[in-house]
Amino acid sequence: KIKRINLIKPSVNILIVDGNEKVSSKKYTEIGMLTQYEVYQEVLEKISAYELNISIVHPTWGDDFLPPGTNLEDFDGIAWTGSVLNIYDLRPDVRRQIDLAKILLQKKNMIFGSCWGLQVLATAAGGHVRKNPKGLEAVIAKKITLNKQGINHPMYNDKPYTFDSFCWHYDIVENLPANSIVLSSNDNSDYQSVTFSRNNSEVWGVQYHPEFNSKWISGLISQRKSILLEENIFSSEHDCNIMYNYLSDLEKYDSLRKDLEISETLIDDKIRYRELINWLTYLKGNFSSI
Question: How confident is the model over 236-287, as pLDDT tens digits?
Fold first, then answer.
């Protein structure tokens, strides 16, 4: 008689590194939005095909940001959020993040960095970040296009070769770390996504935000409307309000989609989250502890 064994499904340990100051996160909370690290946690839990054990650290909040007993060797994957900070300011809270990135790059990690996350990781690995002379890229990064390397990279399995994504950034990676591979670009940035390895770590970095959703970005439009108008992201308050209305309720304002030229790649969860879905799949397949 064969004895049945109930196998316990192992969890995957993920560390989310929050790039924001506490005051910045508080501003989101005060108007009823999730913080950037809460957005990341919610999305990863939503799209994962297996159980995740997620921890969050806030290196901008102080020197002792690692909870007692935390061992950086315990994490299978690292996700690094966006931030309102600028890497070239080199404030103490910026330096703490660069130092943490240098430590993590010494270990066996699969690291995904969004926007600021990419900039921190690239800086820690020897790259250079500057303010983009083309100005702010905000709300929607248009026509991000995969090159040959991107088409063949596992981050973009089942992703259209050209797509739009939510975004918000003034800065770009100007000089890449050694041995980086560029995966995509658009008119605003030559480096919309890159990958590179250091020691036993592998980094997937994107300048846009695959973790953002339409409802959340509508909150950002509301919070930063004056900036969007000053930076000519929208030509008028009327145009800004139309985009806000559509993104705040896709079903109610579906009739606006054609006039706003909204791509399916922006509003279909399976497409928009594809990079993170592929990261979790790749993560599971590349760590024997999982």
Answer: 999 999 999 999 999 999 999 999 999 999 999 999 999 999 999 999 876 5
Q: How far is it between the farthest Cα atoms of the chain?
A: 75
Query: Can you say how many angstroms the Cα of residue 200 is from the centroid of all Cα atoms in its chain?
Result: 22
**Side by side, which strands form the sheet with 193-198?**
52-57, 12-17, 77-80, 110-114, 201-206, 193-198, 181-185, 137-146, 162-169
**Of the candidates 268, 163, 153, 137, the residue with the CA atom closest to the CA atom of residue 205:** 153
Neighbours of 184 (CB within 10 A): 29
pTM of the model: 0.93
